[in-house]
Amino acid sequence: MPAGVVDAAAKGVRLDRPATILLRRASGAKQLAAASSHLLFRATILATLALVVLFAVHYPSLLSRSFSLSSSSPSSSSPHRRSSHRSLLDSGATTYRGAAWEREVRRSATPRRNGGLSVLVTGAAGFVGAHCSVALHARGDGVVGLDNFNAYYDVSLKRARSRLLLSSRGVVVLDADINDGALLERLFAAVPFTHVLHLAAQAGVRYAMKAPQAYVASNVAGLVGVFEAAARHADPQPAIVWASSSSVYGLNGETPFSEDHRTDRPASLYAATKKAGEAIAHAYNHIYGLSITGLRFFTVYGPWGRPDMAYFSFARAIVSGEPITLFADARRDFTYIDDVARGCLGALDTAGKSTGSKSGKKSGPAPLRVYNLGNTSPVAVTRMVAILEKLLGKKAHKRVVTMPSNGDVPFTHANVSHAARDFGYRPTTSLDVGLRHFVEWFVKYYKLDDIKSGSSNVLLAAGKTTKRKKSMAMSAAS
Ligand SMILES: NC(=O)c1ccc[n+]([C@@H]2O[C@H](COP(=O)([O-])OP(=O)(O)OC[C@H]3O[C@@H](n4cnc5c(N)ncnc54)[C@H](O)[C@@H]3O)[C@@H](O)[C@H]2O)c1
Ligand SMILES: *[C@@H]1O[C@H](CO)[C@@H](O)[C@H](O)[C@H]1NC(C)=O
Fold first, then answer.
1. Does residue 104 or residue 38 have the better pLDDT?
2. Which of 245, 314, 406, 409 is an S-S bond match for 274, by CB 3.0 to 4.6 Å?
3. Which of 41-55, 63-77, 419-433 has the lowest mean pLDDT?
4. Tens of pLDDT along 163-217?
5. CA of 379 to the centre of ligand 2 (A)
6. Residues acting as catalytic residues
7. 85 CB burial (10 A radius; 0-12, 13-18, 19+)
8. What is the pLDDT of residue 450?
9. How far, in Å, CA of 145 to CA of 160, rounded?
10. 175 backbone dihedrals φ, ψ, rounded to 5°
11. Does the beta carbon of 427 sit less than 6 angstroms from any atom of ligand 2?
12. Whose CA is nearest to atom 11 of ligand 2?
C-alpha cells in the first residue's frame, strides 16, 4: 500500500509540472501581447487555449485521482481504526478505493505461475498470516492481505510484518476490518480470488475475560462477514480455509485429540467462539455450497510470533529479569510456524471447489473439512522455559503455581493422521530447534546485544506497554 501512495504522489508531482508550464506560457503570452501586433496576440491566446484543452483531455484521471486521494480518509468504515497508529506510509491506499486502489489490489492478487492461486489472506499482519502470505508468494501465488491492525498486542510488530510483506514481496495488506461488508464486496468484485485463507480473529484465551465482545465481533460476526461475502458476492465463489483452534477440545479427556472427538465442552469464551465458527461453517457449506476447511492449530510459535503467548513473554521476562509465573504440570503440543504454514498451504491446495447453492446437487456437495495441525509431541511448559534459559544464557525467576480453571487446558496433543493422509502434513521441527529460530529472531528484532546485563531499552520499553496484561501472560493454548 505504500507503493500505491508513492505511485499517486509521483503522479501528483507530474500533475504540477504541466500546470506550471501553462502558467509560464500564459504570462509569457501577456508580455508578448503588449509588445507585438493584435494578430500575434490572438494567435497566442488560441495556442494557449489549445494547450489547456489538450491537457484536460490527457490528464482527467490524474485530476480526479488526486482529488479522491485527499478526500478519502474520513470515509473509512473500520470500527477499530485508530488514526494515532497510522503513519503516512500506512495510510492512503487502503481507505482510497478508486481506480489506483483496484489496480494495486489486482496486481498483488495476480499469480506469477501457471495455475497459481489467488488468495485473500485475512489477519495477514498477524503471526500466522504473515508467514502464510510469504510462503504463498514465494511459490508464485497471488496474495492480498487484510488486517485491522488492532492494538491487542504491539501494533508496531504488526506494522513491521506488513511492511516486510510489501517491501520484500510486493504483497499488499489492506488496513480494513472483516466486519466491513461494503469493503469485502468491493474487494471480491475487483478480484476473482480462488481461495480465502481466513486467519483474522481475536486470539488469546485469558483476554476473553477482559474483552468478551471483541471475541464475538471478530470470531463470530467477522467470520459470518467473510462467509457472506464469499458466498454471495464472489462469482465464482472461492474455497475457504480458516483457523479454528485446538481449544475446541476443551475439557475433553481423551488424548491424543482426534477430529471426531467431542468438542462441546469449551473451557473459555475463545474456544466457544471457535466452536461456534465450526457450526457456522457447516451452515454456510450446507446452504451456499461453500468449500470450507477448518484448521485446529495447536500452540503455534516461532520468529515474528505473538508477544502475548507464553514462550514470547517468558523470553522477554527472562531478558529483563522479571519473574515469570508458570503452571505446574501444564504440557503443550508446541507447533513450529513453518510446519503450520506448510499445513495451511496443503489445505488450500486440496480444498476442492465451492459449488454454489444451485449446482450443489449436480456436482455433489461442496467439501466441508476439519483438520488438526499440531506437532504430535507435547512438551512440559517447565521444559520450554529451560530451553529458553539455555538459549538466552540467563536464568528465569520462576514462580510455579497450580493452574486456575479460567481458560487454559492442562494438556494438548494432536493426532494429525487425517492431515497427513489428505495433504501430506508432517511436522518436522522439535521445540529445541524451533525455539532456537525464535530466539535468533527475538535477539535481532529487539537489538539485544548483551542479554546478561539486561540493558536493552527497546525490550524494556516493549515490556512496559504489556504490563497490564500480566494476568494473561501464561496463556499458552490460544
Ligand atoms: N497462534 C496460535 O497458537 C493459534 C492457535 C490456535 C488458533 N489460532 C488462530 O489462528 C489465527 C491466527 O492467529 P495468530 O497467532 O496469527 O494471531 P494474530 O493475533 O497474530 O493474528 C490475527 C490478526 O487478525 C487481525 N484481526 C483481528 N480481528 C480482526 C478483524 N475484525 N478484522 C481484520 N483483522 C482482524 C489482528 O490484527 C491480527 O493481526 C487466529 O484465527 C487464531 O485464533 C492461533
Ligand atoms: C489417530 O486418528 C486415527 C484416525 O481417526 C486413528 O485411526 C488412530 O488410531 C489415532 N491414533 C491414536 C494414537 O489415537
1. 104
2. 245
3. 63-77
4. 999 999 999 999 999 999 999 999 999 999 999 999 999 999 999 999 999 999 9
5. 20
6. 270
7. middle
8. 73
9. 14
10. -90, 90
11. no
12. 415
Dihedral over alpha carbons 432, 433, 437, 440 (to 10 degrees): 60
Does the pLDDT of residue 50 top 80, yes or no? no
- Residues 478 and 118: their CA atoms lie apart, in Å, by 28
Nearest CA to ligand 1 atom 18: 126
What pTM does this model have? Answer: 0.80
Q: Is the CB of 258 within 6 Å of ligand 2? A: yes
**Nearest alpha carbon to residue 334 among 262, 254, 411, 259:** 411
Q: Whose CA is nearest to atom 6 of ligand 2?
A: 417
Does ligand 2 lie within 6 Å of residue 256's CB atom? yes
* Tens digit of each residue's pLDDT (9 = 90 or more) over 87-118: 323 434 455 578 899 999 999 999 999 999 99
Separation of 426 CA from ligand 2 center, angstroms? 15
Q: State the DSSP code for 216.
A: I
Cα–Cα distance measured from residue 3 to residue 143, given in angstroms and rounded to the nearest whole number:
15
CATH of 61-303+337-377+409-429, one of 2.60.260.20, 2.60.120.1440, 3.30.360.10, 3.40.50.720: 3.40.50.720
Contact residues for 334 (Cβ-Cβ < 8 A; gap 6+): 298, 299, 301, 311, 375, 379, 384, 431, 434
The answer, yes or no, to whether any atom of ligand 1 lies below 6 A from the CB of 308, is no
Nearest CA to ligand 1 atom 23: 123
| Domain regions of the chain by residue span | 61-303+337-377+409-429
Give the helix ranges, DSSP H, for 59-180. Answer: 60-70, 99-109, 127-138, 155-169
Pairing of strands 118-122, 142-147: parallel
